[in-house]
Amino acid sequence: MQRLRKLPEIKTVKPNIDVFKSVKRQLLEWVAMRASKDGNVKIKTILAIPYNPYEPEPYERWTLQGLFDLEHEVMVGEEFWDFLGGKGTYEDLLNVFEEAGLELYDEIDEKMRSIKNKN
After folding, report:
1. Where does the source fall among the domains of life (predicted)?
2. Cβ proximity of 94 and 82 under 8 Å
């Protein structure tokens, strides 16, 4: 049975190099621990970034370069969500967020005004 293990939380889609180094180190440690029990085990690590802030350009964060194989170890936005939920999942998520935003627009606007007025 496979077990998922959580990495230290990355709080932004544009982390600094020290965060990427920490994540890479943790992944390598987990791979080494697992492979030490069975040298023939197949292990795939993936760094998932939930959205691409550079859209429509590709995600090319300089702090990621050289640490990860961008083609095989990193999933960004649509690729990640469709990997989890199947083809079309990313588009479905965008539609849900758009619908929720439209439905809750007045409530969100009112809350933002009250926060602005407190400052």
Report:
1. Bacteria
2. no
pLDDT tens across 78-99, in order? 999 999 999 999 999 999 999 9
**Cα–Cα distance for residue pair 24/70, rounded to 1 Å:** 13
Both tokens of 58, joined, read: 């590709």
H or E segment at 47? strand 47-49
Per-residue tokens: 98 = 């758009």
16-30 residues labelled b (16+ CB within 10 A) or e (exposed): eeebbeebbeebeee
Q: Residue written as tokens 């180190």? A: 25
Model pTM?
0.76
Residues 106 and 15: their CA atoms lie apart, in Å, by 33
Cα 67 to its chain centre, rounded Å, is 16
Distance CA 70, CA 73 (A): 6
Provide the token pair at 92: 């479905």
